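yo

u said u wanted the structure for the complex thing, so here. seqs first:
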Amino acid sequence: MLNQTHDPDAKSWVNDANDHAEFPVQNLPLGIFAPSGSEDRRGGVAIGDRVLCLRGAAAFLHGAAADAARLADAASLNALFADGNAAADALRQGLFALLTDEKRASDAEKVLFDATECDLSVPFVVGDYTDFYTGIEHAKNVGALFRPDNPLLPNYKYVPIGYHGRASSIRASGAEVIRPTGQTRSSEGSPPHFKPSERLDYEMEMAIWTSGANQLGRPIPIGEATGHIAGLSILNDWSARDLQAWEYQPLGPFLAKNFLSTVSPWLVTSAALDPFRTAQPVRPEGDPKPLDYLWDDADQQHGAYSVSMEVLLQTAKMRDKGMAPHRLSKGPMTAMYWTAAQLIAHHTVNGCNLRPGDLLGTGTLSGPDASSFGSLLELSNGGKSPLTLPSGETRTFLEDGDEIVMRAHAEAPGARTIGFGECRGRIASR
Amino acid sequence: MLNQTHDPDAKSWVNDANDHAEFPVQNLPLGIFAPSGSEDRRGGVAIGDRVLCLRGAAAFLHGAAADAARLADAASLNALFADGNAAADALRQGLFALLTDEKRASDAEKVLFDATECDLSVPFVVGDYTDFYTGIEHAKNVGALFRPDNPLLPNYKYVPIGYHGRASSIRASGAEVIRPTGQTRSSEGSPPHFKPSERLDYEMEMAIWTSGANQLGRPIPIGEATGHIAGLSILNDWSARDLQAWEYQPLGPFLAKNFLSTVSPWLVTSAALDPFRTAQPVRPEGDPKPLDYLWDDADQQHGAYSVSMEVLLQTAKMRDKGMAPHRLSKGPMTAMYWTAAQLIAHHTVNGCNLRPGDLLGTGTLSGPDASSFGSLLELSNGGKSPLTLPSGETRTFLEDGDEIVMRAHAEAPGARTIGFGECRGRIASR
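structre next:
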């Protein structure tokens, strides 16, 4: 539902917000931060190059917005989203009024921090992390590498395929990526060796954070699912392809994934994303219609997001030479074969309970051609076709010192573009 | 390390403990309870048919044992095991002295509850739940059903196969089992239907609870892994076989498992299990030796547990007629192809971090013949051979009103047998 907080002409008295590529006053993403050198974490909102402390801002807000700011004065956003999105929506209204009213600037400035002085963390205590597999082009590309004769399995167009990931190893942007060690095989039929992964990869995903909860045994109908989306971040689901190929049968990926998953620390809320809701791409002729529990006309009309995502790589050599990160790909979030609401309806249809702050990964989102492939596995055709970088170096998979930067922006005609910030990680040797 | 708390002749002044099949003073399992009608959860220890409240007992303990009792005065045991097993070991020593010293009975009796007046819950806040697949006979049996030509995959004898399960839907014994609904196919090639599972099953597993933590990126060497085992409970990993068959490729089980997992609420601690440590069964001739990171001579000598497990079924009709539950199987925990220490070493070898109170399932433990098969899938040969029950009823999978009861006991020559209590669940219709 659009309201004044989406007005593309709205301006903040925080001047650098107005031309900011990520965090204008139309965005107001929520996060958890501690001032540098402190461990005293609390909620904050990004505005331009600054972070407004919600503990401090509570004094300048009123009613439901002040109550919500106090809920966000915590080491996670779980309490703010415990009962759904209403509290965060009220907070957004209050913050928008505060940050657009010049007369209130002198008060609010007292609780503004420079973003460079804020240490951001994962915005939620993640009870469970589920990774889906909604990128059908990715599923086809990877399927062709693992099962050349059978790339897309018969269940794919019926079942929103997903599996449980690891909650303990989710970290915020900037966390070091320690190259995992494990079992790999040099060739089919040979015994495994134990060594550091030689096929370390990133996966470009979006993170869907949940709000509210359902009781165990009580599915969330698809018509109510959108109300359980707190918002989105960027997710890099680091993957060790050589470990994965050897371990994944029959129960799925395990050590190939659970050594680290990195999220961008700002939660771009559902309310901020309202102007960017768009129609789910029409299924190709011949694809089956989803079963009833996955189908909702309104969701098909508005359940996708106009978000573009890009991945950049900067090697150690490029850094030394002062060369900018090189873009590896750029693609749209509409590469999802299933909507976020379909994922929630599916996840709970058997009675499984979601809790506030659960993390649902979209799975790697690749477009139909290499310019939008969301992993090196795809870009290098399973390691067979090295990429050449502007530094003259080549890459099939990630080498020590490589840094991956992911960015995303929500863009739509008539709306002020908003960004997600960065999801960054550099490979360290073991 | 055996000490006076393992003396098989030790007696408690709690008289019913001394002949108790589960909870003599040699056991002292820890749990979380609230007195009936209250929500005020705190730690307790089972002694005979009673529960000693650790909040109350702290006043009658001294030094490290009193400190530990205060750590256990919480809604979970996570704090008690935050730094490893030392606190729980001290608590055990103090509780043993308290419960065997007649002179201290009049004090301690004030904080004893009848077990029937205690509402027990899951003993830990589970950060992550990992389910392994260590039952090699189960893996062969199930593999033969899903992949007749390829029952045991090439990685099985090298990789302790595991995957991440759902933390939010773990419940304590007694939780209702609401039959899950989902997508199933009546035959290969046909489109799926949406309906309640018709192949609802149990899985007889043991739960390994972790203590202490490792930093992300820092594996736990196998020689240190045993110190990260807080203790064991029983685990029933309820499974919907029809959902599983359709959804599990390529990323593993998801909705087929995450609707509920039930644990017995008493943590039988590592210290209590010391007399029952036994040698890991020798690998059959021709099986590969595990890679070095999975191998430790001491672990091979003592890393398995002499625990017997049994599964009983009582149908609604049997309950109505006053018939006792019927034993479906009984088997040993030494059916594990990998030790608990090997699971921990493997889980962390890529840098994945464990936290206190993580739950590691052993996977279904089946012996080599039907008397010890740990699931109906195996007992009914994939649903093709119905079992006949003493009531004259037949079963391939679970029907509404069926109740599954799992029990386990640690038994060894010269040691007082100790029990795990029950892991119970009744099927409710949707």
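The longest strand of chain A covers residues 418-428. Chain A has two domains: 4-121, 129-428.
cya
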